[in-house]
Write a structure and sequence with these properties.
Length: 363
């Protein structure tokens, strides 16, 4: 399996949905940066299940850092973060051992590995995003010391839409702090209604997460294949259920003329800005100093409590499957801190490549 990413900061994610633990290993962190465990746990809590809107599986997601810190600061050694799986019901998944769930990795993982851990989806489970958040929460704290902030919100669930970030003037105070990560309270209520309606019908609904990274200096990223968008897109597609990524004006920009989509430059107080931000903070794969803006499309949860057509992998015959277990009616809400985590880890990796000799704060 290829469950790692990063060049200067190498991130490895390990574990399965029902294994004893899951976790993350970060190799290449700059030394001398304080990590606040309380702040990290508060970030983890944002990903946890929410009553009525998420899975009934309740996990504390307490992060235990067992290496990489000394006296509360990064010390240059690989940082290992562990999270226990405490609330598993493996018997719920006996039915899918040889009856792959539609739109899951059950069939493809069977073809590739044959012998696999199918409980809860194994290593393909959204449960692994808790480990991503443990790593991303560390990266966010390091970035904050450099004045770089990462925040996201749910832009859309089903047909309910939130107010998008202002791509030019978005600031850290705009990032949602309420229990439901939307900018508009009225939009949050409409989104909740979409989720609860799908849940009441034993179905699921998809959504879109919008993320902004503020404070990335101009000049970060390498053409042609090491650009800001390249790295972010590759890593974001590692999040389970992500089926699309766009930057700036994205696909809507394809409907515009160049004169409409171009971002005019202007100078102010000795700095260069753009009047619009259709590029999403990057030109030619290199950051231009404006906010890095991207959106990810999250598919509807594949596990729905309705009869679905599949096959029996033992007999090769058609089979009618009724899924059991505990599943989110909408993944997008809990994907918000996950998108932030991947963005933070990717930007930190890019910055370490651009400023290797400037990041070590050791005496």
């Amino acid at each position: 399996m290829s469950s790692d990413f990063g060049k200067n900061l190498k991130v490895s994610i390990f574990g399965q949905s029902h294994s004893e633990m899951i976790g993350a290993l970060l190799d290449g962190l700059p030394s001398g940066y304080p990590i606040d465990p309380g702040e990290l746990q508060a970030f983890m809590d944002r990903r946890r299940a929410k009553d009525g809107l998420s899975t009934a599986r309740r996990e504390a997601d307490r992060v235990r850092i067992v290496s990489g810190l000394f006296e509360g600061k990064t010390c240059g050694a690989p940082l290992a973060a562990l999270i226990e799986n405490e609330n598993v019901r493996s018997s719920d998944y006996d039915e899918i051992a040889f009856h792959p769930r539609p739109s899951h990795a059950d069939y493809t993982s069977f073809v590739k590995y044959r012998f696999r851990d199918y409980r809860g989806g194994g290593h393909f489970s959204g449960r692994l995003t808790a480990a991503i958040c443990a790593a991303g929460g560390v990266a966010k704290q390091i970035l904050k010391t450099r004045g770089i902030f990462v925040g996201a919100h749910v832009l859309q669930i089903g047909k309910a839409k939130d107010t998008p970030f202002d791509p030019v003037r978005v600031k850290k105070e705009d990032f949602p702090v309420s229990d439901f990560p939307a900018l508009s309270p009225s939009a949050a209520e409409r989104m909740k209604a979409e989720i609860l309606t799908a849940k009441s019908e034993c179905d699921s609904v998809g959504g879109i997460v919008e993320c902004a990274v503020l404070g990335v200096p101009a000049g970060v990223g390498e053409p042609m294949f090491g650009g800001v968008e390249n790295a972010l897109a590759a890593n974001l597609f590692g999040i389970p259920a992500v089926k699309g990524v766009e930057f700036g004006s994205g696909f809507a920009g394809a409907c515009l003329r160049g004169s409409e989509n171009n971002d005019a430059f202007y100078a102010e107080d000795g700095k260069i800005f753009t009047k619009t931000n259709n590029a999403g903070g990057s030109n030619g794969g290199i950051s231009n100093g404006m906010p890095v803006i991207f959106r990810v499309a999250i598919k509807p949860t594949a596990s729905v409590f309705l009869p679905q057509e599949t096959v029996d992998l033992k007999t090769g015959e058609n089979y009618s499957l009724l899924i059991r277990g505990r599943h989110d009616p909408c993944i997008a809400v809990r994907a918000v801190p996950v998108a932030e985590s991947v963005a933070a880890l990717t930007v930190l990796d890019l910055l370490l490549g651009a400023e290797k000799d400037k990041w070590n704060l050791g005496e």
